[in-house]
Amino acid sequence: MNIKVDGVVVTYNRLSLLKECLTALLDQEYPLNKIYVINNNSSDETASYLRKISKKYPTIIPVNLKKNVGGAGGFNVGLKFFMKKSNAAYAWIMDDDTIPSKSALSNLINKISDISNLGFLCSNVKWKDNTAAQMNVPQTEENWNEKADLGLIKVKSASFVSILFPREVIKKVGYPITDFFIWGDDVEFTSRITKLGFEGYLSNDSIVEHKIKNNIATNIVLEKDINRVKRYYYANRNYIYNNRKLGSKKELFKAYISKGIFEPIKILKNAENHKFYRLKVSFKGTIKGMTFHPKVEKYRK
Predict the structure, then answer these.
(1) In a domain, 100, yes or no
(2) DSSP assignment, residue 153?
(3) Shortest CA distance to 154 belongs to which of 136, 139, 165, 168?
(4) Is the pTM of this model over 0.90?
(5) Which of 67, 76, 120, 177 gets the highest tally of CB atoms within 10 A of its CB?
(6) Exposure on the CB side of residue 225, measured as CA atoms within 13 A
(7) With the C-alpha atoms ordered 14, 231, 72, 217, is the resulting torsion angle positive or negative?
(8) Domain shared by 250 and 199, yes or no
(9) Helix-strand-coil split of the chain, %, nearest 5
(10) Rounded Cα gap, residues 260 and 163, in angstroms
(11) Could you tell me which residues are beta bridge partners of residue 86?
């Protein structure tokens, strides 16, 4: 099967993981056409490394940004480069801490012919102990098992940790929302795709490892690194926005209750430290989510 696929990797100050990710991409059974590496203005040696490795492997194309636009902005830029600079039929995107198995891409490509209206195909994301990566569990459709005998699980949305998009779908839905900065951009983008009638699937034999430190979903209560707590402003803001724009009134009400009542109670009861700081971040993000109106960029030739 001669289908051109480009890789898109977003990285920020995680050079050792980036090296591991790129090694895995270069070692795929199904060779990539190009690999766009979106460097979010890293302050380590990432730019220097990319300059050297791209000389050795012309497949790798560094895109060095002048400021950190977050994961959401990085994927926005990466998919724009894919659409404007390449003629490949599919984009395979991931963060720098995604380590695909050797057959990860080939097992995605092999499933394409089984889906008539493909919106996206995502991988089976695992943690280091081979359990499911809790941060990357996709939301399944009611008829999730209609292609289960083919190794495919039907999903409404998925994370950007190893996911394959057809070029024609990006033309119709546009790009991930840069204003999200981090968290929730993948849910919004993949939900936008399935809302338009395209189908999303998880391929159970396309295995990747997500090298996160702890196998937990986004959780301000359990976050141990106090310097990361401020990020949960985006988590709550984007979560409320997604429920406003993509969910039912019932789902939106549940989102308000979850973030506006239950999360603060859990912070006060279970957080180890900095409880009032966590509360401030939580409330600020939740309230902003009620009026957040980010720009959705359409594809333009």
Answers:
(1) yes
(2) E
(3) 139
(4) yes
(5) 120
(6) 8
(7) positive
(8) no
(9) 45, 20, 35
(10) 32
(11) none
Q: 14, 45 in Cβ contact below 8 A?
A: no
Residue 220 falls inside a structural domain: no
pLDDT confidence of residue 247? 87
Percent of the chain with pLDDT over 90: 96
Q: How many domains does the chain have?
A: 2
Say yes or no: 246 and 103 in one domain: no
Same domain, 196 and 128: yes
Do strands 199-210 and 118-126 pair parallel, antiparallel, or not at all (unpaired)? parallel
Q: Give the residue numbers spanning the domain of 151.
A: 5-210
* Strands of the chain, DSSP E: 5-11, 34-39, 60-64, 90-95, 98-100, 118-126, 139-140, 152-157, 163-166, 199-210
Dist. CA 249–CA 142, nearest whole Å: 19
State yes or no: pLDDT of 1 exceeds 70.
no
What is the radius of gyration, based on Cα positions, of the chain? 19
3-state SS, residue 196: coil
136, 255: one domain: no
Both 201 and 251 in a single domain? no
Q: Which residues of 102-123 are buried (b: 16+ CB within 10 A; e: fewer)?
A: eebbbbbbbbbeebeebbbbbb
In single-letter form, the type of residue at position 182 comes to I
Of 108, 117, 124, 205, nearest in space to 158 by CA: 124
Residue 110 shares a structural domain with residue 236? no
Query: Which pLDDT score, from 0 to 100, does residue 2 have?
Result: 87
Tokens 């959401």 sit at which residue? 72
